[in-house]
Amino acid sequence: MTETAHQKRGGKPFHSILEPHYDFIRELRQRRKTWQEIADLLLSEKGIRVTFHAPYLFYRRRLKRATKPHWEDAENNSEFQPARPNAAASRPQARQSPLPKPSPFTRPNIKNINTDQEFT
Question: What are the two backbone dihedrals, phi and then psi, of residue 109, each rounded to the nearest 5 degrees?
Fold first, then answer.
Protein backbone atom coordinates (compact mmCIF):
# COMPACT_ATOMS: atom_id res chain seq x y z
CA MET A 1 0.00 0.00 0.00
CA THR A 2 1.06 3.55 -0.49
CA GLU A 3 2.26 5.75 2.29
CA THR A 4 -0.84 7.93 2.13
CA ALA A 5 -3.13 4.96 2.77
CA HIS A 6 -1.50 4.43 6.18
CA GLN A 7 -1.83 8.04 7.25
CA LYS A 8 -4.33 8.84 9.94
CA ARG A 9 -7.54 10.35 8.55
CA GLY A 10 -8.75 13.63 9.91
CA GLY A 11 -6.80 15.41 12.52
CA LYS A 12 -7.08 17.65 15.49
CA PRO A 13 -10.13 19.89 15.12
CA PHE A 14 -9.53 23.61 14.83
CA HIS A 15 -10.14 25.64 17.98
CA SER A 16 -10.08 29.40 17.89
CA ILE A 17 -7.57 31.21 20.08
CA LEU A 18 -10.48 33.41 21.15
CA GLU A 19 -12.57 30.50 22.47
CA PRO A 20 -11.39 30.83 26.12
CA HIS A 21 -12.08 34.57 25.96
CA TYR A 22 -15.67 34.41 24.72
CA ASP A 23 -17.09 35.73 28.01
CA PHE A 24 -14.61 38.61 27.95
CA ILE A 25 -15.65 39.55 24.40
CA ARG A 26 -19.35 39.19 25.22
CA GLU A 27 -18.97 41.44 28.26
CA LEU A 28 -17.21 44.11 26.18
CA ARG A 29 -19.92 43.97 23.53
CA GLN A 30 -22.57 44.40 26.22
CA ARG A 31 -20.66 47.52 27.31
CA ARG A 32 -21.04 48.75 23.69
CA LYS A 33 -17.32 48.57 22.85
CA THR A 34 -16.36 48.64 19.18
CA TRP A 35 -14.61 45.70 17.54
CA GLN A 36 -11.41 47.76 17.27
CA GLU A 37 -11.53 48.53 21.01
CA ILE A 38 -12.08 44.83 21.73
CA ALA A 39 -9.08 43.88 19.57
CA ASP A 40 -6.95 46.47 21.41
CA LEU A 41 -8.11 45.18 24.82
CA LEU A 42 -7.37 41.59 23.80
CA LEU A 43 -3.81 42.66 23.02
CA SER A 44 -3.29 44.73 26.16
CA GLU A 45 -5.06 42.50 28.69
CA LYS A 46 -4.82 39.00 27.23
CA GLY A 47 -1.73 39.26 25.01
CA ILE A 48 -3.62 38.13 21.91
CA ARG A 49 -2.82 40.04 18.71
CA VAL A 50 -5.78 39.97 16.33
CA THR A 51 -7.36 42.32 13.84
CA PHE A 52 -10.71 43.87 14.70
CA HIS A 53 -12.37 41.52 12.22
CA ALA A 54 -11.31 38.34 14.08
CA PRO A 55 -13.36 38.87 17.27
CA TYR A 56 -16.30 40.00 15.14
CA LEU A 57 -16.30 36.83 13.04
CA PHE A 58 -15.67 34.63 16.08
CA TYR A 59 -18.48 36.22 18.11
CA ARG A 60 -20.95 36.09 15.21
CA ARG A 61 -20.13 32.42 14.50
CA ARG A 62 -20.42 31.53 18.20
CA LEU A 63 -23.84 33.18 18.48
CA LYS A 64 -25.04 31.41 15.35
CA ARG A 65 -23.88 28.05 16.66
CA ALA A 66 -25.52 28.75 20.03
CA THR A 67 -28.93 28.97 18.39
CA LYS A 68 -28.48 25.59 16.66
CA PRO A 69 -26.26 23.24 18.68
CA HIS A 70 -24.49 20.46 16.81
CA TRP A 71 -26.16 17.05 16.94
CA GLU A 72 -23.15 15.51 18.71
CA ASP A 73 -23.37 18.12 21.45
CA ALA A 74 -27.10 17.66 22.01
CA GLU A 75 -26.59 16.35 25.54
CA ASN A 76 -24.07 19.12 26.34
CA ASN A 77 -26.07 22.06 25.02
CA SER A 78 -26.96 23.35 28.49
CA GLU A 79 -24.15 25.93 28.35
CA PHE A 80 -25.39 27.30 25.03
CA GLN A 81 -28.52 29.36 25.13
CA PRO A 82 -29.83 31.20 22.09
CA ALA A 83 -28.70 34.80 21.99
CA ARG A 84 -32.14 35.89 20.86
CA PRO A 85 -35.15 33.72 21.58
CA ASN A 86 -37.70 33.25 18.86
CA ALA A 87 -38.56 36.84 18.03
CA ALA A 88 -41.99 36.00 16.63
CA ALA A 89 -43.07 34.43 19.92
CA SER A 90 -42.08 37.46 21.99
CA ARG A 91 -43.71 40.09 19.77
CA PRO A 92 -47.21 41.22 20.57
CA GLN A 93 -49.84 40.51 17.97
CA ALA A 94 -50.02 43.31 15.43
CA ARG A 95 -53.39 44.92 14.92
CA GLN A 96 -55.02 44.02 11.67
CA SER A 97 -55.35 46.85 9.21
CA PRO A 98 -58.91 48.10 8.75
CA LEU A 99 -60.80 46.82 5.77
CA PRO A 100 -61.54 49.28 2.97
CA LYS A 101 -64.99 50.80 2.87
CA PRO A 102 -67.39 49.01 0.53
CA SER A 103 -67.93 50.82 -2.76
CA PRO A 104 -71.42 52.14 -3.61
CA PHE A 105 -71.36 50.28 -6.94
CA THR A 106 -73.95 47.54 -7.36
CA ARG A 107 -73.76 45.04 -10.17
CA PRO A 108 -76.69 45.23 -12.59
CA ASN A 109 -79.05 42.30 -12.70
CA ILE A 110 -78.82 40.73 -16.16
CA LYS A 111 -82.46 39.58 -16.01
CA ASN A 112 -83.70 43.17 -15.77
CA ILE A 113 -81.80 44.43 -18.80
CA ASN A 114 -84.06 45.25 -21.74
CA THR A 115 -82.37 44.00 -24.93
CA ASP A 116 -85.24 45.00 -27.24
CA GLN A 117 -84.25 48.63 -27.34
CA GLU A 118 -82.18 50.00 -30.17
CA PHE A 119 -79.21 52.16 -29.39
CA THR A 120 -78.29 55.04 -31.60
Answer: -85, 120
